[in-house]
Specification:
Elements: H1 19-24, H2 31-44, H3 46-59, H4 64-76, H5 81-97, H6 105-108, H7 115-125, H8 130-151, H9 157-166, H10 168-180, H11 191-200
Helix pairs in contact: 2-3, 2-8, 2-9, 3-4, 3-7, 3-8, 3-10, 5-7, 7-8, 8-9, 8-10
Length: 210
């Protein structure tokens, strides 16, 4: 709970995962659209891939070469410079902050470590079960997106809480699947989200870094 709290010093509040551009382009207009956006990312987008990478890193936490391979593949899958910067910045910050819970796994993490790999490996090293850790990770990601949506004006706070309540079942489902997934299960089909992330790179005025 501490690692995935908004108070954990990784700067997650500064990123929207392309949502800001999606709102500007009219792809997400209201709370219903935000809920659909999140559900799509969880089932078919970068959040699914993050969950798969998390699960693989959880199983490989004692394998330095395996963690390196997983991190390199994950970074190569970043569909835009914004997405690459976001996951790398969060991963690096997480690894640094997690040193408050000393463990040899921190020395096995690659220098360029993406966020789900860092969290997955550290969770495994400290004995946090994979499904529970994945559910917490995905819930935190969804909460961040909802918070961004509220700041962008497409949902109110009450609507945001309702979105989180509605997708609890989906988060549980995805966490269970991803805990058993392999790198062969990576893949996505959220083309509009990828385009939004690309277009955000050249957006003149913005609230978020991605």
């Amino acid at each position: 709970m501490a690692w995935l709290s908004p108070a954990f010093p990784i700067g997650g509040f500064a990123y929207s995962g392309g949502l800001e551009r999606a709102v500007l382009d009219g792809l997400v207009k209201d709370a219903s659209g935000l809920s659909g956006w999140l559900s799509s990312l969880l089932r078919h987008g970068f959040l699914w891939n993050d969950a798969v990478l998390f699960g693989v890193a959880w199983r490989r936490f004692e394998d330095e070469a395996g963690l390196m391979e997983t991190a390199e593949l994950g970074l190569a899958l970043a569909g835009s410079a914004e997405r690459h910067k976001e996951t790398l910045s969060l991963g690096t910050a997480f690894a640094a902050a997690a040193s408050a819970w000393p463990h040899p796994v921190l020395d096995r993490l690659p220098t360029a470590v993406l966020f789900p790999v860092a969290v997955g490996a550290v969770a495994a090293a400290h004995g946090v079960p994979a499904v529970q850790a994945l559910a917490a990770y995905l819930h935190a990601a969804a909460s961040q997106s909802v918070s961004a949506g509220i700041r962008l004006g497409v949902a109110g706070q009450t609507e945001g809480v309702a979105i989180l309540a509605d997708i609890e079942g989906l988060i549980t489902e995805i966490a269970g699947k991803a805990s058993l997934a392999t790198l062969d299960d990576l893949g996505g089909a959220t083309v509009q989200a990828e385009i939004a992330s690309l277009r955000h790179e050249t957006q003149h005025s913005r609230l978020f870094r991605s």
